[in-house]
Design goal:
One of its GO terms (molecular function) is alcohol dehydrogenase (NAD+) activity. The chain has about 425 residues and is an alpha/beta fold. It folds into 2 domains: about 200 residues, Quinone Oxidoreductase, Chain A, domain 1; about 140 residues, Rossmann fold (3-Layer(aba) Sandwich), CATH 3.40.50.720. Helix content is about 30%, strand content about 20%. It contains 14 helices and 17 strands. Strands 3, 4, 5, 8, 9, 16 and 17 form a 7-stranded mixed beta sheet that branches. Strand 10, helix 7 and strand 11 form a beta-alpha-beta unit. Helix 1 packs antiparallel against helix 2, helix 6 packs across helix 7 and helix 9 runs parallel beside helix 10. The longest helix has 23 residues.
Length: about 425
């Protein structure tokens, strides 16, 4: 038996026979995680510097089911990291670019950006990551050197900010993916392409996490949960006792509700046209639920009446411009703030009466909840580790990679919240 496996076996035997406190169990988890990382690093040493064959879900055409293909993943180049993706999740952004209804189609492509995994190998110049590290690959990044990275108020890295049109790696513009059969290059997506069992990501877009954080839950921190919570805590910044309205009760909107509770909001109002979302509103502790379809008046008038003149903060998570205008109109004069979180269509135009601004209402937007990936995201990891943030309740479905198209069906039909894709099942 491998020495690390033997250590794990002996430790489990000790735990079964021990009546010690939870501290022993916690410490044992740390030891087991460390042992697992060392074992993985040892296994990965045989693949470093080589092309890795694996399975990936490839989008060949807009709106067509993804196809599980045998692909090759090239070794990481300078400042790049190759990651063994363990779990991925489907986000609306993946759906948006898969449908390609209002964006230029780029195919074939490996989608996916909300994921977790383990470092397999690193390229030259990568000193802060090593094989075996548990990590989150991110659609944005933090180079640490540009003016935006040095500004505490911005997370819009000039080098690694989100770029949906980029089809290859930053260093050379080339893809690290190709089909095994025809050696045909496959385009990257958001610099992550996590619907592949292995992927290559710029090191500035990879965040190391605590190895005791379950990877099937950790993947949610790489997009939706961080975006929702950050829209409240980092952007809207409500005062304790504030009223907050959230347009769209998907995963991001419900994460915003979690942020609202953390911020001490006195009233959290969820707005959604899907009557099934009432169940989630109750489960996540919202104080009110409004379905615009059930009212003859515009929803902003309903909200202003409910809050004696207007809502303190509005979070728009649908990407629907009409919803954004309603959010703006629903704000209280003098201090109301609306935050755009949802991604609108490329040709969308926002219009509002200029007097909304003269009446001291504010509208702003956010990417990734204004969290700086490397220096800000660890605060959310700490929240989870300290039982201040629950991630499991956002997961409603699980599927193996071979059934990834079910995740698209669930999202299109509005069934559930996040679907976790087991990339190695």
């Amino acid at each position: 038996m491998h020495s690390l496996q033997k250590q794990r076996s002996l430790l489990f035997q000790y735990l079964r026979s021990s009546s010690n406190s939870n501290n022993i169990i916690h410490n044992s988890k740390m030891i087991l995680s460390s042992s697992s990382s060392l074992l993985l690093a040892s296994n990965f040493s045989s693949t470093a510097g080589k092309v890795i064959p694996c399975k990936a879900a490839v989008a060949w055409e807009a709106g067509k089911p993804l196809v599980i293909e045998d692909v090759e993943v090239a070794p990481p180049q300078a400042k790049e990291v190759r990651i063994n993706i363990k779990y991925s999740s489907l986000c609306h952004t993946d759906l948006y670019f898969w449908e390609s209804k209002s964006v230029p189609p780029v195919f074939p492509r490996i989608l996916g950006h909300e994921a977790s995994g383990v470092v397999e190998s690193v390229g030259d110049g990568v000193s802060n990551l090593k094989p075996g590290d548990h990590v989150l690959p991110l659609f944005t990044g933090e180079c640490g050197e540009c003016p935006n990275c040095k500004c505490e108020d911005s997370n819009m890295c000039e080098v690694l900010r989100i770029n949906p049109t980029r089809e290859g790696m930053i260093s050379d513009g080339k893809s690290r993916f190709s089909t095994i059969k025809d050696k045909e290059p496959i385009s990257h997506f958001l610099g992550t392409s996590t619907f592949s069992q292995y992927t290559v990501v710029h090191s500035g877009s990879v965040v190391k996490i605590n190895p005791t954080l379950p990877l099937d839950k950790a993947c949610l921190l790489s997009c939706s949960i961080s975006t929702g919570i950050g829209s409240i805590l980092n952007v809207a910044k409500p005062k304790k006792g504030a009223s907050i309205a959230i347009f769209g009760l998907g995963t991001v909107g419900l994460a915003a509700a979690e942020g609202a509770k953390i911020a001490g909001a006195s009233r959290i109002i969820g707005i959604d046209k899907n009557p099934n979302k009432l169940e989630y509103a109750r489960k996540f502790g919202l104080t009110d639920f409004v379905n615009p379809e059930e009212h003859e008046r515009p929803v902003h008038e309903v909200l202003k009446e409910m809050t004696n003149g207007g809502v303190d903060r509005c979070i728009e998570c649908t990407g629907n411009i009409n919803a954004l205008m309603s959010a703006m109109e629903a704000l209280h004069d003098g201090w109301g703030v609306a935050v755009l979180v949802g991604v609108p269509s490329g040709d969308a135009v926002f219009k509002t009466n200029p007097f909304n601004f003269l009446n001291e209402k504010t509208i702003t937007g956010t990417t990734f909840g204004n969290y700086k990936p490397k220096t800000g995201l660890p605060t959310l990891v700490d929240m989870f580790m300290n039982n201040k943030l629950e991630l499991g309740k956002f997961i409603t479905h699980r599927v193996p990679l071979s059934e990834i198209n079910k995740a698209f069906d669930y999202m299109i039909k509005g069934q559930g919240l996040r679907t976790i894709i087991d990339m190695n099942d």
